[in-house]
Amino acid sequence: MPETQRRPESRYGNRPTMKDVAARAGVGLKTVSRVVNGEPGVTPETERRVQESIDALGFRRNDSARVLRKGRTASIGLVLEDLADPFYGPLSRAVEEVARAHGALLINGSSAEDPDREQELALALCARRVDGLVVIPAGDDHRYLEPEIRAGVATVFVDRPAG
C-alpha cells in the first residue's frame, strides 16, 4: 500500500480492526461483531460482504478485547517440572485435548524443578487471567495461590498434593 494510503498507526499497530472491516463492507460495527462472533441477525448477503472484507484485510479477532467483555480467557495454564521428562509429554497432550474439547487454549511452561520459578510462572499465568491452572508442584508451599483460588481460578495439582 502506498505511504499516502496507509492507515494511521492504531494502538494495535498495523493490524486491521473491526472498524476497518465495517468501513470496507459498508456496515456498522455491531454487524461485524455479530459475524465475527457467529451471532444471529445478519442476512447471508451482508455476512458474505463482511467475510470478504475480513479475508481481504486479514482481520483476526482480538481475544483480549473479548476477555474484557466476557471476563473469561478460555485458557488453561499448565506448570510442568521439566519439559524434557518423558512423563510430561503425554500429560501435556491429555490436558491440551481436554482444554480443546472445551474450547480453551493451553499455555504451558516449565518450572525446571525450581520452586521460585514455579511460583513466578504460576502467578504470570494468573496475571494473564487463565481460567484454570494445572500445576505439577516443584515446591512444598503453595499459599501464594490462595488469592487466585479465592478469585475463582480453578486449580489442580498433579502427581503430588499442594503444600
Describe the structure.
- The protein is α/β, with parallel strands linked by helices and 163 residues long.
- Helix content is 43%, strand content 12%.
- It has a 4-stranded parallel beta sheet, sandwiched between helices.
- The N and C termini lie far apart (57 Å).
Radius of gyration: 21 Å
Number of helices: 7
Strand order of the largest sheet: 2-1-3-4
Q: Give the CA-CA distance, first to last residue.
A: 57 Å
Structural class: alpha/beta
What is the helix/strand order?
HHHHEHEHEHE
Query: Could you report the average pLDDT, rounded to the nearest whole number?
Result: 86
Helix content: 40-55%
Number of DSSP-assigned strands: 4
Unreliable stretches (pLDDT < 50, length at least 5) are 1-8
Strand content: 5-15%
Shape: elongated
- Biggest sheet overview: 4 strands, parallel
Question: What are the main properties of this structure?
Answer:
163 residues; alpha/beta; 43% helix; 7 helices; disordered N terminus
Draw up the topology in text.
Blueprint: H1 18-25, H2 29-36, H3 44-57, H4 63-70, E1 75-80, H5 88-101, E2 105-110, H6 115-127, E3 132-135, H7 146-150, E4 154-157
Parallel strand pairs: 1-2, 1-3, 3-4
Helix pairs in contact: 1-2, 1-3, 2-3
What is this entry, summarized?
With 163 residues, the protein is of the alpha/beta class. It has seven helices and four strands; from the N terminus they run ααααβαβαβαβ. 43% of the residues lie in helices and 12% in strands.
